Every structure is written in C-alpha cells, then in structure tokens.
Fold:
Amino acid sequence: MILSVSVVKNHLRYKRFLLLSGIFTLLLFSQISFGQSAEAETNFAVCKACHTIGGGQLVGPDLQGITERRDEAWIIKFVQNSQALIEAGDAVAIQVFEENSKIPMPPNNLTDDQVRDILLYIENGGKVAASEVVEVETEETVASQETVQAETPAEAVSGRKDMRNMQITFVVLLILMLISLFDLFVTKILKEKWIHYIIILTALYIGGEVLFVEATSLGRQQYYQPDQPVWFSHKVHAGQNQIDCMYCHFTADKSMHAGIPPVAVCMNCHNQVKSGKITGESEIAKVTEAYANKKPIEWIKVHNVPDHVYFNHAQHVEVGKVDCEECHGAVEEMDEIVQVEDLSMGWCIDCHRTKEVQFANNKFYEQYTRMHEKLISGEKVKVTVADMGGEDCQRCHY
Structure:
C-alpha cells in the first residue's frame, strides 16, 4: 500500500514535469518565432529605404534568401557597421560594396539579437503575426503629430540673447549720455556734475566694447540659421538614423568643398520613404517633385568664411582627420543647422596650436621625416599644426 502511494506521487510529479516542460517549450517557441517580430518590423523600416524582400534590387540587393547566401555572424557584423568590415579588408564585404555601385550603408545601432530578429522577419516574408502588431504611442510619435518647430542649440540661443542684450544696453546708455551732455552744457538742471561724468564714461566704455565686438565680427555670421527650401532635419538623418556625413557630403575628403548633395542622393532613400515621422509627406514631396522636374534644390549655405580665406575640406577631413563636429558642432542634435562657431582667424589658429598631427598611417606626412624622428626619439612630446606651418599667414591668405 505504501509502495503504491509512492508510485502515484512519483507519477504525478512526472506528469507535472512534462506539463511544465511543454508549456515552457511553447512559450520559448512563440518567442523565437514571433516574440520580437513587431520590433523587427520597426527596425526593418530603415532597411526598406534601400532593400526589398522578394521585390528585386532597389538601392541595395534583394534580401530574400539572404540567410542562405551569407553566414549569420557575417551578416550581423555587416549590418551593424559595413564600412568597418570593408576597411578591414573583408573580401565578401568589398564584393558586396562594389556590386552595389559603392554606395555606403550607414552603420546601424542594433544588437546581435535585434539583427537576428530582422533575419527571422525576412525569412517570414516580411510578415508579422497579428497578435504581435501593437501600436505604441511614444513621445516621438506624439511629437510628430504636433506642429514642426526646429530645435536650436542652447549655445546659439544664449549667444543671440547676449548680443541682443548688449545692443539694448548700448542704445540705453547712448540716450542717457546724450541727455547728460545736453544737461551738462545747456539746461544745467542737475547740479551734481559727477553724475553726468559717470554716465558719460560708462557709456563711452560700453560703446567702445560694442564697437570692438561689432568690428571684429565683420564678415562673420555666428549663430546664422537660415530657413531652407525643404525642412530637413539633421537630427533625424544624422542622429536618429545615424547616416554618415560622408554619405551625403561625399566630396568632403576629396575636394576643397564638402559639397551640397544632389537630389539623386536624397532619392536613394526617398524612392521608398515617402512620409516622415515629423512632417508627413509634405516636405518629401518637394524632393520628389524636384527630382521629377530635374530641378536642383537651392539649399542655403550656412557655414561661410570670408572670400580671402582659403579653406580645404580634404586637407582637414582626409589628412588632418578632423571630425565634422569640431567645426560644425553637434549636427546630430540639430533640426535646422546653425553656425555655432564664429570661424574667425583666432579660432582657427587656436585649433592649429593644439591639434595634434595624425602621423600614423598618413602618407601625406611622410615628407616630414625629421619631425617624425624627433617624436619617436622623445625630443618632442607632440607635434602640433603650428609646428608644420599652421601659423603662416599665406596658408590661408593666399
């Protein structure tokens, strides 16, 4: 009797174990098959700008059957940062790059699991289980329903405010000085002349300071933020979508000018992306219309230096290895571009005095062997641009 009870208990435990194992397996299977499909669809939205699933080649290759053609580990690395693989000399990555018109794919901030989910989404033909389609209202989607208002960097707002305050102060003191002079020599109502002297001296000091600041800023346009013909957000493209600067400004490492991207570059993505989260279809429609009419978009240049100044983007980007944001500011945080630096001669010289020369793997500087040897021997701790002639007037004033 005791034995039979023990057998029954063991049998019940065994059944419970099988039941729990079955439930766990079903849950695990459901997660693997569909658990993150909704997120995968969201992440694949970026891919859809250049790829299709079974629809043939767009900008990039058709992704149908991609997991059969390529190894999963390689795909994950390529999706996360294709350019890094190409620069590392990966033969397959270079082949894919050359077969697709050498159009660089922007890096994607995705985890390995997120890329795997996208691959499952592709294998499933780009379909999501109905139970997984959930529309979540986020701060971003709420913001997209509101009126578009470009964000201006706090530094630019503060700078403009300081300029306005200085101008208002100058006008007020100028009026007070004129009143003091008139009373001092004509009406003579106020007997305490020292009050007039203080007002006049203060006005002259502030006026001199304003005159100096305004004179030195001639030809400069710090905090310049023009309205563009198409509302284009660098915050969305360079920040959220992480599109590399060189994808649009593709001559920055080869030419004196960074180059304003032609409409054809915009259409690489906007052949498929017809609506934005912030502006809807209205602004993208301007781009497609310009492309259809073969009419360039007349973008307004924001960063300008005086005509007598020679500035070469290739020299700074390719040779000097200068990051774009060192001159242009945190572009990835700006909706409308604003010039945050004054781009003055003093500002450039300060950079030349502190910026270390990038000797490593840089053929341009092979001619400076002696300077390089001094650096290796320890005779010099670092080499700055000033050491290489960065303070010579003719470098900019040619």
Observations:
- Residues 154-216 form one domain.
- The two ends are 108 Å apart (CA to CA).
